[in-house]
Amino acid sequence: MNAPTSLAHVRPEIAPRPVPEALIAALQARFGAQCSTAMAVREQHGRDESSYTEVPPPAAVVFAEGTQDVADALKLASQHEVPVIPFGAGSSLEGHLLAVQGGISIDVSRMNRVLSVNADDLTVTVQPGVTRKQLNEEIKSTGLFFPIDPGADASIGGMTATRASGTNAVRYGTMRENVLALEVVTASGEVVRTGTRAKKSSAGYDLTRLFVGSEGTLGVVTEVTLRIYPLPEAVSAAICSFPSIEAAVRTTIETIQLGVPIARVELIDVNTVRMVNAYSKLSLREEPMLLMEFHGSPAGVKEQAETVQEIASGHGGNAFEWASTPEERTRLWTARHNSFFAAIASRPGCRAISTDTCVPISRLADCLLDSVAEVDASGIPYFLVGHVGDGNFHFGYLIDPDDPAEREKAEQLNHALVARAIALEGTCTGEHGVGLHKMGFLVDEAGAGAIDLMRTIKRALDPKNIMNPGKIFSLG
Amino acid sequence: MNAPTSLAHVRPEIAPRPVPEALIAALQARFGAQCSTAMAVREQHGRDESSYTEVPPPAAVVFAEGTQDVADALKLASQHEVPVIPFGAGSSLEGHLLAVQGGISIDVSRMNRVLSVNADDLTVTVQPGVTRKQLNEEIKSTGLFFPIDPGADASIGGMTATRASGTNAVRYGTMRENVLALEVVTASGEVVRTGTRAKKSSAGYDLTRLFVGSEGTLGVVTEVTLRIYPLPEAVSAAICSFPSIEAAVRTTIETIQLGVPIARVELIDVNTVRMVNAYSKLSLREEPMLLMEFHGSPAGVKEQAETVQEIASGHGGNAFEWASTPEERTRLWTARHNSFFAAIASRPGCRAISTDTCVPISRLADCLLDSVAEVDASGIPYFLVGHVGDGNFHFGYLIDPDDPAEREKAEQLNHALVARAIALEGTCTGEHGVGLHKMGFLVDEAGAGAIDLMRTIKRALDPKNIMNPGKIFSLG
């Protein structure tokens, strides 16, 4: 393990820029009641689900109700060179929304209309404030669904900004693969469209993918065209216990390698199974567990399931349980759904520091085993779940928020984990994004050359550095 | 049909910049026999498969044998502010390789090693000069394959640069989805890595996707990490005739909409079927035809095939023919494989001007029917084939290369087709790229705002405008 060179970046650099009264007055004149400077509103918009608490809130919040509102707010902010932070559902995890350089928040949650559903083309166009659950509710009658599930009921705009994914990504991809086109407002307040509804294109630079994952640092997403999918004819779920993490991971690798189009494959480690048993009064076998889901035709699902059961048996997998009805599936997946709450409940008053490293799956067992040994040795309680089909997993370090030494220890564990993942050709963040918390890690991962390219792009597209400044990388 | 506003861009603007003798001398000193100024070599590197003939060749060709060669050549070119055009297999179609602003060619075809195969992770890392057929030959023994098939035996570097796809994209995606990571040499000669071997990541700007499809205008690709796939356990192919293009397209839409994971679905129009019958002495039913391929387990393939057969029957599909062995499949697919040659042979001495518009599949029948009517009325012979599962299709206008009026007429047909595709929410290029030929179309499609973003990025990453200048968009 290397020395934790990156811990300096874990505490954000707070350097608010002045927000002139004239800007607030201009926003109030333009937006009336859509602009708030009430402290409660500002505070709500000055935090996310990260553990940062020390950053002052934005000076004002504009509740945009359409693209023109966003454009006008950005033009005013640009005139005054004041930072702008887009806000969707507030569910980001790495400090993305914090006003480290001051400025205003543009809340797009009122831009929450599904603008069009094209069932023949399997596409939908939505405003950025639509949440993923709302979207699935609204398109249910078409027999189609949007598969990306990051856990939280995040907004589509926020999921676009962080390149989100989740449990279904092993089959359906991430936001990278599922955003077809965007409308964005640039730093200067121009409205630009990227991409088309065509499924593929070689027409110039891939601006769509440049904005996906840019965490609000290049512009504000005001419309998103997404791929959607036919609801599978049949769905089958299973849980299976394994004698070791390695056996579970080896089963996953062989499943992927055989081309089984598994829709979900989640790992829960033995420690977390114990927490879930205690929390949900279950008696799951206290061994590492895979939770799986198969989508397809009835015959196809059956075939996939048999194939995986055979692979699992070869690795000592046992206590297979199957479910086909929605109710049975929900029951089987209880362990996964409750793992976060079970973990939190296992240590009253704790907060979880979550990681989301992702490695090539051949390296997954090594990465997990070494990291589990390290956290076990540290004495910090934790949970461990993973989207193992993608090589992506989450440790949650359960710390006493009032104990700086524990927090520091957890950050060091996280750092060691990330260093290991990078050494194994992986990434510091599979799905949460960089925000503030991983800026140091990104330097370790991407290297100076790539960071310089990112800086050059940022400076070119946002010369006044007003779009969510101080996130992803420093401008040096 | 709008007036063809974009035809001005069809003829390239040729404005060679001076190539100082000092640069040639420096290249010769550094590269010795790896640098050629022989006219035959320069001419071979000054053209591609487009119909442009009037552009003078590059002043010199450097045969790079490794990343350092590319970096050194770029540093020298940058010092002298001389354009650099990367060259792979020379199979691009839109004038991508032409030295419209003079400069030197960097040929990467000697960088043709498969650097690593990671079967567990389903990834491979290759040098840019590896061709797709070579790659599949080299990994055959692993039971894995690389599915992207643009027709030509293109280089992986070139396929990356044009965001190529082809017949398998409906199932396996395009280069956009299948490039995981890159090594690139930037315009200033820096070597930068983008991405990792992790299957997904939220770590900063998506530099990988920015370089994919950038047609050599932002840097030279020197290493590519790709996703590869398990060879399907079973493959089944079929052809089926339909009473109309609309019936064939409707069959395709329903197949996709039902979630059938069809691996290939190609349309051949009746006109092209006739050409193939004449060329290959076949007696295929003279009706529009779909050619299909299914990948999966034996039972899965059978089920997919039955589902599609049922859908096709509902649309008057008949004369279904099936094939499971490689030999039978090759025979069935003869019509598709020979369509280009059959078309060329149908008019001795002709050249084909190919299009590759792509629309949402719900718009495909409209787009095709109107375009067929237009070309029929024009009297210009043509062929029509399409990757219809993606809404992507190719008209080939068979023109007499010595008849400027015919060429002009074909360009006008192409322009009308692109205008129609854009109006139907599609793209001017599904897979060939913009090059010189579609610069005007890209403006029509993307709009001034998006083009301005592309220009801003280009200026920032290549301030001397030396990377394949004059392609994709003008710097205005």
TrEMBL record, chains A, B:
The keyword Flavoprotein applies. Its cofactor is FAD. Residues 54-231 form the FAD-binding PCMH-type domain. It is an enzyme of class 1 (oxidoreductase). One of its GO terms (molecular function) is D-lactate dehydrogenase (NAD+) activity. It holds the Pfam family FAD_binding_4. The keyword Magnesium does not apply. It comes from the Bacteria. Keywords: FAD, Flavoprotein, Oxidoreductase, Transit peptide. GO terms for biological process: lactate catabolic process. InterPro entries: FAD-bd_oxidored_4_C, FAD-bd_PCMH, FAD-bd_PCMH-like_sf, FAD-bd_PCMH_sub2, FAD-linked_Oxase-like_C, Oxid_FAD_bind_N, Vanillyl_alc_oxidase_C-sub2. Its EC number is 1.1.2.4. Signal peptide: none annotated. Belongs to the FAD-binding oxidoreductase/transferase type 4 family. This is D-lactate dehydrogenase (cytochrome). The lineage of its organism: Bacteria, Pseudomonadati, Pseudomonadota, Betaproteobacteria, Burkholderiales.
